[in-house]
Amino acid sequence: MATRRILALHGYSQNRHILSQRMSAITKLCKDCEFVFADAPHVLDAVTPQDYRVFDPAASAGSNDPKTMPRAWFRIDPKTQMYTGLERSVIYLRDMLAQTHFHGVFGFSQGTAMASIICAILERPHLYPSFLIDGVSPHPPLDFAIFVSGLKPYRHESLPPLFSEPLNTRTLHVIGRNDVITTPERSQALIDAYVDPRVEYHDGGHFIPAKTNWRNFFASYIASTSPYAGGMQVPPPVPKPLTESSTTSTPAQPLDKIVE
């Protein structure tokens, strides 16, 4: 089976090293897969008291160490309440996609917002002209997207047209029933943005579930995204993860507006 290359986008205040550690138990089980963990282009060097409340505990404000340096895909302007820095992140990911072919994307928290923007642009590149290179999209639409603690991006003038109609990218939405940062109610808006989404719940909070049942489920789901898995044109459906309390990764923290 050919290698499945998956772009992995971290949450607010994380970085590629932190997300890679949090997903290590999952990625080890994903055979014939290459996860490419990307660093968001914005370094959180000016930190407000509000930021500290949502910082990943593995990140360190003001750190010069790439492994602990907090990053973000965008921030929210305190006056306008709109996203700032979004265009830079879009172009940064466009250039990655122009260099490498990806089959899917895995996003966590703020990373799901960025991942969903990329899915939308790849389906409707004519609605985001700055993404084009010589008038052409540098990458075809993705085969699938996995959103954990997902949220729909909307605080930017370029976004409403992209999400004006449901998107066709195959999606898996994993939601924590006790997530107080990205509540199940907030995640519903992202679910509704896609045609025929698959939704699974775990009993924990704002983290990527990684107990045995969940990492087996993620591995099986990703394997099923190949149209030729097991020599079949259409792979069999992936069973739901067994009932088990979730564990590991970022603990739940107070609800915050910055990660929207």
From TrEMBL:
Pfam entry (one): FSH1
Keywords: Hydrolase
Presence of the UniProt keyword Protein transport in the record: no
Biased composition (Polar residues): 243-252
Gene Ontology cellular-component terms listed: cytoplasm; nucleus
UniProt region (Disordered), positions on chain: 232-260
Domain of life: Eukaryota
Molecular function, one GO term: hydrolase activity
Keyword presence, Transit peptide: no
Ranges of residues in domain Serine hydrolase: 3-216
PANTHER family: ESTERASE OVCA2 (PTHR48070:SF6)
Protein name: Serine hydrolase domain-containing protein
